Amino acid sequence: MNTQKEKDYWTERYVNQNTGWDIGYPSTPLKNYIDQLTDKSIKILVPGAGNAYEAQYLWEQSFKNVVVIDISEVPLKNFKKRNPNFPENQLLHGNFFEHKESYDLIIEQTFFCSFIPSDKNRTAYAKHMASLLKPTGKLVGLWFDFPITYNLEKRPFGGNKALYLSYLNPYFKTVTFESCYNSIPPRQGKELFGIFTKK
Ligand SMILES: C[S@@+](CC[C@H](N)C(=O)[O-])C[C@H]1O[C@@H](n2cnc3c(N)ncnc32)[C@H](O)[C@@H]1O
User: Fold this and answer.
1) How far apart are the CA of 182 and the centre of ligand 1, in A?
2) Residue 199 belongs to what H/E stretch?
3) Does residue 54's CB lie within 6 angstroms of at least one atom of ligand 1?
């Protein structure tokens, strides 16, 4: 993955406001998942967070150990404007694949589907996600459930349960990975909700 190329690609999409994925609020499945968490001290990563409405929601619910990373600075600046008290050192401008830390929870939404769906990239995602989790850590999120196309102009790239598991299984145990019952209306029937623990 060419970091500069990816950075330019995403920045251009933000600058041109070509951001069809951006729903403008925390998605219902992730909000509901967050609402049942009780330990507010856990360390949480939101990778490829974009405008990071879920991170904002976590912050507003008093989860103070939340880290946001994005390869483009544009959404990070938007986030900072909306959340001026969010600590600078928890707002990371960088490439997820180069990030090194240990988290209790990683929250995924339209990140996996955002990069070129090569075997190499998808394997690297699963491996790196696992490396960023503590031994008891969890990867929780939403993965699109529609056919993958290899038209590189047509992000997000889809997939299906079996395909995703082929990448995740070597590194994760599946707690749940099912059709999402509480998706936001435009995504109903088109996404899977998953909870995975590190193997
Ligand atoms: C489709 S958007 C999703 C944004 C956000 N998760 C949401 O649901 O609105 C993908 C995001 O991932 C970021 N991104 C892509 N590749 C990245 C990488 N290697 N490291 C960090 N961020 C990356 C992009 O800049 C973009 O903000």
Assistant:
1) 23
2) none
3) no
Q: Which helix (H) or strand (E) holds 12?
A: helix 3-15
Burial class (CB in 10 A: 0-12, 13-18, 19+), 17: exposed
Asked whether residue 151 carries a pLDDT value surpassing 80, the answer given is: no
Domains with residue ranges and CATH for the chain: 3-12+44-198 (3.40.50.150)
- Contact 115 CB / ligand 1 (< 6 Å): yes
pLDDT digits (tens, 9 = 90+) for 108-135: 999 999 988 899 999 999 999 999 999 9
Q: What is the pTM of this model?
A: 0.97
Could you report the per-residue pLDDT of 75-104, keeping only the tens digit for each?
999 999 999 999 999 999 999 999 999 999
Are 118 and 148 spatial neighbours (Cβ–Cβ below 8 Å)? no
Quote the CA–CA distance of 91 and 159 in Å, as a whole number: 29
Decide the pairing of beta strands 172-179 and 191-198. antiparallel
Q: What angle do CA 144, 151, 11 make, to 5 degrees?
A: 75
Q: How far apart are CA 78 and CA 95, in angstroms?
A: 18
Q: What is the pLDDT of residue 3?
A: 85
Q: Is the CB of 146 under 6 A from ligand 1?
A: no
Kind plus residue range of the DSSP H or E element containing 139: strand 133-144
pLDDT in tens, 11-40: 999 999 999 999 999 999 999 999 999 999
